[in-house]
Design brief:
single chain, about 240 residues, alpha+beta, Alpha-Beta Plaits, 2 domains, 4-stranded antiparallel β-sheet, 9 helices, 4 strands, about 70% helix, about 10% strand
Length: about 240
């Protein structure tokens, strides 16, 4: 979106000419769908401001003849345009300055990109810490179950019967963790997404995370529990 601010000294008759020039520039450089070009005068600007800030709108209306010096008048271009169009609009006589949504939200976008990388780093760190904890737990469980497994061998239990309790033990722990993660996902993701959308108008149109991710967490918990059991069994075989 492009906002081209007109100079305060521009006369109403010149505003129409400037609007036509900008429409011509935008239309000549649009290969697909033409962007929407519209003029927003002081009255329309105050009306839009009053919809969100009534007190400010009433204060602006009391300016009278000085309104033109305080309240901006601009031409709004909604759509995807090339940098060449922006430069052409800047060169139109009577245009004081040109503001683009890309420049306006550049700092916010940079912050969001930084947050994304920080989130990825935290997730990788949590996964590594979780795997380290699971391997340590597997070692502890291995020493605990060795006496029980030796007794089962003396009773004539088969290799599958010996390994099955360990597999079920690890998967049950993984199942509990997966259920907790899935529950936290379904209960907390909506609230978290709402807070993120309030952060900036840019992210209000973001699609909500799919519910399937909750079940993915459940599957990851079961897989990690099974991995712990297999790792523990391997440690016992070496022992």
């Amino acid at each position: 979106m492009i906002t081209a601010y007109l100079e305060p000294t521009v006369e109403p008759t010149e505003e129409v000419k400037i609007l036509d020039q900008i429409k011509t520039v935008v239309g000549s450089h649009s290969e697909t769908e033409k962007p929407e070009v519209k003029y927003v005068g002081p009255d329309q600007f105050i009306k839009e401001v009053s919809a969100y800030y009534p007190q400010l709108g009433r204060e602006l209306q009391t300016l009278g003849q000085d309104m033109g010096q305080v309240v901006p008048k601009f031409i709004s271009i909604s759509g995807i345009v090339s940098p060449k169009v922006i430069e052409k609009v800047r060169s139109v006589s009577g245009i004081e300055s040109v503001d683009t949504s890309k420049e306006r939200y550049k700092q916010i976008l940079g912050t969001l990109i930084a947050l994304r990388w920080i989130t990825k780093a935290l997730i990788i760190g949590l996964v590594l810490a979780l795997l380290t904890g699971l391997m340590q737990m597997a070692r502890i469980n291995s020493s605990i179950h060795q006496e029980v497994m030796s007794m089962m061998k003396q009773w004539g239990a088969s290799p599958i019967q010996i390994r099955l309790p360990r597999l079920l033990s690890g998967m049950s722990v993984g199942l509990v963790g997966g259920v907790l993660a899935t529950t936290a996902w379904f209960l907390g993701v909506g609230t978290f997404a709402a807070h993120v959308r309030d952060f900036s108008p840019l992210v209000k149109t973001l699609v909500a995370p799919a519910p399937i991710y909750g079940f993915v967490f459940l599957g990851i918990g079961l897989f990690l529990g099974l991995l712990t059991s297999v790792f523990g069994s391997a440690q016992e075989s070496r022992g």
